[in-house]
Design brief:
With 208 residues, the protein is mainly alpha-helical. It folds into two domains: 143 residues, no CATH class; 60 residues. It contains eight helices and no strands.
Length: 208
């Protein structure tokens, strides 16, 4: 059976891997050659990765608070030998108000049915981790989709450059080129906000 310490450390490793992916995308860093986000001795500590993610201002207030709670718990379990249960952590390093607030994370699960305090705290911890994990997965999915869109935009630009250099010798070549471009364009989601701005500017030009 997995120990509580092992569970906390494992979640920390899982979250660090996801945060590394997010940071690599946002900062345009190649993980295969990165030293600061890689797995070398020069890599950024996990706490610094959490802090950097927060300072990029993409983390909702609630998730920031969850990260803060998780990091505090994870650090004690990782560095204090005696800290091997949630009861020990909250009774030693926290206060009754913080413990009550933490338990409220699982209020929809009716944890009062659980007899042991440790079981109630463990359930609240599971809810905390689920919330963080769900948010990270959503960010990674969005980042991945955006990367695909960026790649398609780059492909269109390179095709146009090639078109400019290459002499089109037949109508068939011209049609094939346009068909490939339009296929890529159709796969790129519309930027509704940008379209609205363009329309507004067009109206301003017409009025002049």
């Amino acid at each position: 059976m997995q120990t509580t310490r092992a569970k906390v450390i494992e979640k920390g490793v899982e979250f660090e891997a996801s945060i590394t992916q997010v940071l690599a995308f946002l900062l345009d860093i190649d993980l295969s050659i990165s030293k600061i986000l890689g797995d070398t001795t020069q890599a950024m500590p996990v706490n610094s990765k959490f802090m950097l993610l927060h300072e990029l201002n993409i983390t909702p207030k609630e998730i920031k608070e969850y990260f803060k709670i998780f990091v505090e718990i994870r650090n004690k379990f990782a560095h204090v030998r005696e800290c091997d249960t949630f009861s020990y952590y909250f009774n030693t390093y926290s206060n009754p108000t913080s413990k009550t607030k933490f338990l409220k994370l699982a209020e929809n699960i009716n944890i009062q049915q659980l007899n042991e305090e440790e079981e109630r705290l463990l359930t609240a911890f599971d809810v905390l981790c689920f919330s963080i994990s769900t948010w990270l997965k959503a960010i990674i999915k969005i980042a991945g989709n955006q990367k695909k869109v960026d790649d398609k935009k780059t492909a269109i630009i390179e095709m146009l450059r090639l078109f400019k250099k290459k002499q089109i010798r037949s109508l068939e070549e011209y049609r094939n080129f346009h068909q490939q471009c339009y296929m890529l364009v159709d796969e790129i989601p519309k930027d509704e906000e940008l379209l609205k701005l363009v329309e507004e500017e067009a109206i301003k030009v017409k009025k002049k």
